[in-house]
């Protein structure tokens, strides 16, 4: 009789930014499929998701990954359900309308490696600041790249777990890094981002380093904030062959700026200032190869005959990829050309 560790991972109910939670279940003779992962329960009163007098909530397994950091173990991403089996209010994944996996997402996840003793990023002196931004982006060498051992170990774990990480790089500020995840299907993309975040937190634990997901952890300084740019496409965008279709899609985002910002991460006004390659939070713009726009049309899309994808640059590093994807999908589905292509 063999025993396997299943690490059940879910999102708590903290507002405005949810956190990862997890606990281990030992099962016998596990066959290695999501169908073999039983539903489980947890105390929602300890995670801001239920009152103490009625605290049982249900973990519904939705995605399974090998856990390369432990022996005989798997990572189980879960949705949170209420006791009656309906999606809990904190369950952003359940709001995604993409059952046919028409929408593909690539998320560019930025973050800071954070020294909990100095309460500053790695590479920052205890007092003051390091040299100004410039040499840290895509840097190499101990003078400019800080925490690479954590970043490399995290990348290996993600790849071994089957997460589709497409790249990593040091970012503009000292101690700031990025990884990119892509998946065909909005729910799948969200699952992979959250499990990649979980693995990063776990790796950093070993080194006594924290992960700072806040979009502007250095406050009102000239140091860059952190984003989670959302690259997205669907059949319409992948086959359009028309600038007019791309204009239609981009213009559909203009009337719903507030609705998007509402799920694009807390404190985004500190990051979306019109500086540091951002558009102001209360404005909307789009343009080809424009990193100062709300939505960038990649030059590769244009060169491919207007067949490709778009990049929403507004989501921040602490945003929930499930909620970001759900809102983008909802907006794109209002475009007349979408209804035509999909026979709606």
TrEMBL record:
Catalytic function, reaction form: L-glutamate + NH4(+) + ATP = L-glutamine + ADP + phosphate + H(+)
Ranges where the GS beta-grasp domain occurs: 4-85
Pfam families, per database record: Gln-synt_C (PF00120), Gln-synt_N (PF03951)
PROSITE patterns: GLNA_1 (PS00180), GLNA_ATP (PS00181), GS_BETA_GRASP (PS51986), GS_CATALYTIC (PS51987)
A GO cellular-component term linked to this record: cytoplasm
Domain GS catalytic, chain residue ranges per copy: 87-344
SUPFAM superfamilies listed in its UniProt record: Glutamine synthetase, N-terminal domain, Glutamine synthetase/guanido kinase
BP term (GO), one: glutamine biosynthetic process
Keywords, alphabetical: ATP-binding, Cytoplasm, Ligase, Nucleotide-binding
Its EC number(s): 6.3.1.2
GO molecular function terms attached to this record: ATP binding; glutamine synthetase activity
Quaternary structure and interacting proteins, as annotated: Homooctamer and homotetramer.
Chain's role: Catalyzes the ATP-dependent biosynthesis of glutamine from glutamate and ammonia.
Family membership noted in the UniProt record: Belongs to the glutamine synthetase family.
Entry-linked PANTHER family: GLUTAMINE SYNTHETASE (PTHR20852), GLUTAMINE SYNTHETASE 2 CYTOPLASMIC (PTHR20852:SF57)
Name by which UniProt lists this protein: Glutamine synthetase
């Amino acid at each position: 009789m063999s025993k396997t560790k299943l690490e059940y991972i879910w999102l708590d109910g903290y507002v405005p930014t949810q956190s990862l939670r997890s606990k281990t279940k030992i099962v016998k003779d596990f066959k290695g499929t999501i169908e073999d992962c039983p539903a489980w329960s947890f105390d929602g009163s300890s995670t801001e998701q239920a009152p103490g007098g009625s605290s049982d909530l249900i973990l519904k397994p939705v995605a399974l990954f090998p856990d390369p950091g432990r022996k005989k173990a798997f990572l189980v991403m879960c949705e949170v359900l209420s006791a009656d089996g309906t999606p809990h209010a904190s369950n952003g994944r359940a709001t995604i309308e993409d059952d046919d996996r028409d929408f593909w997402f690539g998320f560019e996840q930025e973050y800071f490696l954070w020294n909990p003793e100095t309460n500053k990023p790695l590479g920052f002196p205890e007092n003051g600041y390091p040299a100004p931004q410039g040499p840290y982006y895509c840097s190499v060498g101990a003078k400019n790249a800080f925490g690479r051992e954590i970043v490399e170990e995290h990348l290996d774990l993600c790849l071994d777990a089957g997460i589709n990480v497409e790249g990593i790089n040091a970012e503009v500020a000292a101690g700031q890094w990025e990884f990119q995840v892509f998946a065909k299907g909005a729910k799948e993309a969200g699952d992979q981002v959250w499990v990649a975040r979980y693995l990063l937190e776990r790796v950093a634990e070993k080194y006594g380093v924290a992960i700072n997901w806040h979009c502007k952890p250095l406050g009102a300084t000239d140091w860059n904030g952190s984003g989670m740019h959302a690259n997205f496409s669907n059949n319409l965008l992948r086959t359009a062959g028309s600038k007019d279709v791309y204009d239609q899609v981009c213009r559909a985002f203009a009337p719903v700026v507030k609705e998007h910002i509402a799920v694009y991460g807390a404190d985004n006004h500190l990051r979306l200032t019109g500086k540091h390659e951002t558009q102001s939070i209360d404005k909307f713009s789009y343009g080809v190869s424009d990193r100062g726009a709300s939505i960038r049309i990649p030059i590769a899309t244009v060169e491919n005959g207007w067949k490709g994808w778009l990049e929403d640059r507004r989501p921040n590093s602490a945003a929930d990829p499930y909620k970001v994807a759900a809102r983008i999908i909802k907006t794109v589905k209002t475009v007349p050309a979408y209804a035509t292509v999909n026979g709606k």
